[in-house]
From TrEMBL:
GO terms for biological process: U6 snRNA 3'-end processing. This is U6 snRNA phosphodiesterase 1. The keyword Hydrolase applies. Signal peptide: none annotated. Pfam families: HVSL (PF09749). The gene is Dvir\GJ10908.
Length: 176
């Protein structure tokens, strides 16, 4: 799900956070700001069009909504080779986001692909660094949260989902 409405605010935050933490940590900005509803998976080329049609059918009745992003959180990937600083979806919108996740997970299951996490934490990854730097970032979290709160409310308009398969980008518009 693309982050459009508050992208400029988040990009400003990325620049400020990188400057603030640069003596201690080499952080890099995530360039494509989005909220994921699936893990990265591999499809065979011949499956792409049918997968697209399956997602289109599964999402045809899904409704978009307005939401906000609020709290920062530190994540690592499963291998602990990368650490991420992310901003979470306001918990008040978790049920609505889960309603979008369900059809995506059903399609993933139908294709025998990895479904999203059992207890999803809906978030937008902002910054990343190499290695497990969770403790260092946790230590700076309060300072970074204050930096984030200096910006206006981070609005996330949930209007479409996107699926990238190789060099193809599919857009699924949600009902309003």
């Amino acid at each position: 799900m693309p982050v459009l409405a508050c992208a400029e605010q988040l990009e400003d935050f990325q620049i400020e956070a990188i400057k603030r933490l640069s003596p201690d940590l080499e952080l890099r900005a995530n360039e494509s700001l989005h909220l994921s509803l699936s893990k990265t998976v591999v499809l065979q080329y011949h499956q792409i069009d049918e997968f697209h049609r399956s997602l289109q059918q599964a999402l045809h009745s899904c409704v978009g909504f307005n939401s906000t992003l609020n709290l920062l959180r530190v994540y690592t990937n499963e291998e602990r080779t990368r650490t991420f600083l992310a901003v979470q979806l306001d918990a008040a919108y978790g049920t609505k986001m889960s309603a979008l996740l369900r059809p995506v997970d059903l399609v993933m299951r139908d294709y025998r692909l990895a479904q999203f996490y059992d207890n999803p934490s809906f978030h937008v990854s902002l910054l990343w660094c190499v290695g497990d730097q969770q403790l260092l970032l946790q230590d700076k979290l309060q300072e970074l949260q204050q930096l984030l709160e200096d910006h206006e409310t981070l609005k996330l308009a949930v209007r479409e989902l996107r699926c990238k398969c190789g060099n193809k980008d599919f857009i699924f518009k949600l009902k309003l």
